[in-house]
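Methods, example record. To illustrate the input and output format used throughout this study, we show the complete record for Glycosyltransferase. The sequence lines were provided to the predictor; the line carrying structure tokens was produced by it.
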Amino acid sequence: MPDASKPLTIAFVLASYTRDAPAGMERATAALAHGLRQLGHRALIITATEPEQTTNKKVDEDLVVLGSVGVTFPADDDELREAISTHGQDEIIADDLRALYRRHHVDIAVYVDALWGLGRLAPACDGVRTVLAMHVVGHDQDLVPALERADVVVAPSTTVLGQAHDQGYDSTCWQVVPNALLDDHGAPDARQREALRQGGPVRVLARLGPEKNVRALLDAGRLVDRGIEVVLAEAGFEHTAGAQAAEYRRCAYCAAHLPMGSIRDAGLPWDQVQPWLAEAAVVIVPSTKETFGLVALEAMGVGTPVVAFDVDNLPVLIGSGEGAGGIVVPRAQGEFGLWGAAEVLLDDPVRYAALSRAAYYRSRDYLPTTVAHDFLKAVR
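The corresponding predicted structure is encoded as:
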């Protein structure tokens, strides 16, 4: 067990990691690494993708490329699984990870997912504590070996614990460590927020995945008489080859039929996410699956109310009653229910202002240093 009295070196392993990637696992990993650095620890991020130039100097001071994975991104699960398990490649990757841990004097290795975080390999290394970070419940063929190798298992919500239990895994000893806000942009003041309520756009930000449900939302929004702005982007992973491009084409077709709608497929750099969400009247998160809900949190962090379905972790994150940071809509009401809730909220200045304030204060529980403290308590 690492010495609690000295600064630690924590290595996060995520094969698909790139700066500014439009995916929750990457952004949450960067945020936790940032929080650990603020507490005086060193945080490495080990990726299988070549880094690109970025203007965001706030994150990823330590980014290490693991060249032995040998897969081209974006990739699907089968491609990555085959690449790391063919002709002894798993042992080569394991040896390279051990060498990196020794070179950087790593105390804790965090495998960010059983497959994409290489948790299924997780080589034993003297003095290195193994943590499996389960943002989603993985496939059995990856998760079973990953759990056998893990000293500690953490997940971003009780939703993940429940889903694992439903699939026959014993999650009673797993720890919940929520995702963190990467940035703290600051919320518009009351006058600016009221102006946004009156004339600002409805905004949607999502990774290109069918579970994000953007196409159905846009299809149901054809009678909405307010500006609708959508940003979608490809992540480094996808369910099947070409799935993200196909999903964008379907969403773009629906957006073209909106009276005041726009869509783009160039993702936002991480340091522009919160400023963009801050300038929305409301942010709709139409996901049908969301084990945490990072976009909802980022919107709340700038005082923008959120409208979302009552699925997975979103009701817990957004809250209810006087302290809610938005409106949770029963899934049975469908996408028309999301638009209806947004319309009613935007017509009610008193409730809108209350939700905006509550959203901002709820987000304070997810600052990087707060989550980093939670992480260290869980893994030491």
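Annotations derived from this record:
The chain has two domains: 9-177, 190-365.
The first helix runs from residue 24 to 38.
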